[in-house]
Amino acid sequence: MAKAGKGSKIVVWALVGGLIAGLGGFGVTNFGGTVGNVGTVGDTPIQIEAYSRALRGELDALSAQMGSPVSFADAAAMGIEQRALGQVVIAATLDNEASDIGVSVGDTAVADQIFTIQAFQGSNGEFDREAYKFALDRAGLTEAEFESQLRRESARTFLQGAVTGGIQASDNYVNLLLNYIGQQRDITYIVINSTSLPATQPLPTDAQLQAFYDENIADFTLPARKGITYVELTPVMLADTVELDEGILRQAYEDNQDRYYTPERRLVERLVFPDAEAAEAAKARLDSGEATFEDLAAERGLELADIDLGDVAQDDLDGAGEGVFAAEADSVVGPLDSNFGPALFRVNAILPEQSTSYEEAKPDLRDEFAIDRARRVIEQQAEDLNDMLAAGATLEEVAAETEATLGTIEYYDGLESDIAGYEEFRRVANGLTVDDFPEIHELSDGGIFAARVDGDLEPSPIPLEDVRAEVVLAWQTAEMMNQLRTRAEALQAALDAGDMAALDEVEIQTAENVGRGQMLPNTPATLNNHIFEMEEGAIDLVEGAEKVVIVRLDGVSDPDMESEEVTQMRGFLEQQAASQTAEALFQAYLEALRSDAGVQLNQAALNAVKAQFQ
Questions:
Q1: What is residue 199's three-state secondary structure?
Q2: Under a CB-based contact definition with an 8 Å cutoff, are residues 395 and 231 in contact?
Q3: I need a surface site. Which of 234, 247, 389, 575 has the fewest CB within 10 A?
Q4: What is the distance, to the nearest Å, from the Cα of residue 338 to the centroid of all Cα atoms in its chain?
């Protein structure tokens, strides 16, 4: 018997916590005992309940990642069946090996782990048998079943720790990585771009254009594609046909008056005084021209920003509202009572009321409610359309008998026009084959679609006339790059020869301590990688979009291995390298175990589990 150590216990507790949560969310499916296990690894069965829980966990995780529920069909297209099956096969492989070599966990170790699980503790923090029984009841497990699973999890953790524990990264390997990451370069460079060329580029002759098209035919060739026929039904397609009750639209208008009516508002400043006498005296000085409103504010130690109320409605001003809203623009009224005492109010502008009548608002209201109603109609029709397809109806028949529209598209990965503008369509289309039957899928706007692959299309050139504008632009760009390259080569020759006078018309720039991955302004994205491949003292040309850079490598500096930054990076790299090595070693160990024991799968049982999700 072997017993897991402290580190192993932590992993086991995490696994058990996930087990309880997973079971509590899904329960144990009853397959009636007629299907059996989904497979075996050696002499160890892969339990059907374990596979169903793994599938549920993968489906829930994918839905959380996407931010909305994902159908099992869509999730299956993204590989959740393989991931779930992989999980249970790994678990059975480790269980089989633990059984073969006699690794187990004793009662005391199991009890210690159970006592520490928070879900099984009472309010006093101690183990509570009733809480233990209640949690297992909710998960659909007996104590014996749970404790047996806990033993198996502990044994698996022990085996993994025995294989991967104590792995350390090689110092030479880490030093090599540190040197690669930390090296820096000093460079001198000149950027030659399109600003140094004539503003207007010439147009190609027909012969030049045809020759350029032929030489670069790969750039004007459609990739391998799928010929896809589809039916589509979206809320926008149904919006004009759905019936809406006039009373609903009018009620929505009344319930949202703040959207359709804005009362008169005014841009106002308020200057508060300690008493009415001081306010009246200030108003008298203002009326006589002795002081401006700004002067009065400054005398009270205030900036105009301190007294600006912004745009306000009459109700916002309480008792002063009536007087302020009776005043003209660019006038000062008061003293009027305010919540802060007697005040003078300056009205800077009048914002008239804005009112949208029901008839004016009705088109927008109808569009809003029609789209929402159309979504509900489509939701109700989706199952009927799926039933039609399941019964053997073609997409053409579905389009003829329903409001769905029929379309075709030559689809390839990366196309985002027409229906391929929907991410959901692209995801389905990428995995669709000629052997797949069409079925209903949801779109992000509440619409639905079904698709069929009619055949695969080989890459084919796009006729020149269809891409003439693109070819002209590409030719002009190529000609411009030729001119830039010619000028850069002349400057490079001058730099090689030390003829600095020839460089008077260009800007020579320098950069020191350039790190790997660091981008310099107005330079090609490839410049950084290039300077880390150059020999010290070399001069090269690096081309980018509408620019060419002449660069000389002036110096190479290695990282200071004793610096705090490098020391921190060393710790991270050592941990990462050890983790990657341990993972690779464990995967090799699992592969060897599976190969020795043999894996047998029961496809009927697997299909029975998947049927529960569809």
A1: coil
A2: yes
A3: 247
A4: 51
| CB 528, CB 520: distance < 8 Å | yes
Residue 366 half-sphere exposure toward CB, CA atoms < 13 A:
15
Three-state DSSP class for 598? coil
Burial class of residue 7 (count of CB atoms within 10 Å of its CB; 0-12, 13-18, 19+): exposed
Beta strands in 137-281 (DSSP E): 184-193, 221-222, 225-233, 261-262, 265-272
Two tokens at 112? Answer: 């210690």
Q: Which residues of 360-392 are buried (b: 16+ CB within 10 A; e: fewer)?
A: ebbeebbeebbbebbbebbeebbeebbebbeee
Using alpha carbons only, what angle is made at residue 162 by residues 161 and 168, rounded to the nearest 5 degrees? 75
| Residue 187 scores a pLDDT above 70 | yes
- Residue 338 structure tokens: 């305010």
Give φ, ψ of 120 to 5 degrees. Answer: -105, 10
Complete DSSP assignment for 346-362? EEEEEE--EE--HHHHH
Rounded CA separation 312/266 (Å): 5
The predicted-structure confidence for 532-564, as pLDDT tens digits, reads as follows: 999 999 999 999 888 999 999 999 999 988 888
> Which residues does 503 contact at the CB level (< 8 Å), separation at least 6?
190, 491, 494, 495
Question: What amino acid is encoded at 266 in this protein?
Answer: R
CB 232 within 8 A of CB 395: no
Rounded-to-integer distance, Cα 37 and Cα 381, Å: 38
Sheet holding 39-41, edge to edge: 44-46, 39-41, 599-601
Secondary element (H or E) of residue 13: helix 6-26
Q: Which of 23, 40, 24 is nearest to 598 (CA)?
A: 40
Q: Which tokens belong to 172?
A: 């030479």
- What value, to the nearest 5°, has the Cα angle with vertex 115 and ends 114 and 118? 90
CB atoms within 10 A of CB 146: 20
Distance between CA atoms of 51 and 34, rounded to whole angstroms? 16
CA atoms within 13 A on the CB side of 598: 3
**Which residue has better confidence, 392 or 239?**
392
Task: Please return the burial class of 355, using the count of CB atoms within 10 Å of its CB with bins 0-12, 13-18 and 19+.
Answer: exposed
How many other C-beta atoms can be found within 10 angstroms of the C-beta atom of residue 412? 16
Q: pLDDT category, 63, cuts 50, 70, 90?
A: confident
Task: Give me the long-range contacts of 310-314 (CB less than 8 A, separation at least 24).
Answer: 310/267, 310/268, 311/265, 311/266, 311/267, 311/268, 311/351, 312/265, 312/266, 312/268, 313/263, 313/264, 313/265, 314/263, 314/264
The maximal CA–CA distance of the chain, rounded, in angstroms, is: 106
Whole-angstrom distance, CA of residue 48 vs CA of residue 609: 7
H helices of 117-142, in order, are 129-139
What does the alpha-carbon distance between residue 131 and residue 123 come to, in Å, rounded to a whole number?
10
Q: H helices within 143-205, ranges in order?
A: 143-164, 171-182
Contact yes or no for 323/336 (Cβ under 8 A)? yes
pLDDT digits (tens, 9 = 90+) for 233-271: 988 888 777 666 666 766 666 666 667 778 888 899 988
- Token pair for 308: 């600006």
Q: Are 169 and 581 in contact (CB under 8 A)?
A: yes
Number of H helices, E strands in the chain: 23, 19
* Buried b or exposed e, range 224-256, using 16+ CB within 10 angstroms: ebbebbbbbbbbeebbeebeeeeeebeebbeee
